[in-house]
Specification:
The protein is mainly beta. The chain has one domain. The protein has one helix and two strands. A two-stranded antiparallel ribbon has the order 1-2. The radius of gyration is 14 Å and the shape is elongated.
């Protein structure tokens, strides 16, 4: 989530909040989690 907000802040100003709408993980053959994915919704105020 932190990476997503940092990326959004490059093109959006006045970010007020964010929430995870959906999440999912990729599991490898050995049962370890290899990757996390989230659908992140960001709230911001237009000037």
């Amino acid at each position: 989530m932190q990476v997503g907000i940092k990326r959004a802040s490059k093109t959006l100003e006045n970010i007020k909040s964010a929430w995870v709408q959906d999440q999912d993980v990729t599991v490898g053959k050995n049962g370890d989690i290899e990757e996390y994915r989230v659908l992140l919704k960001v709230t911001f105020v237009l000037k």
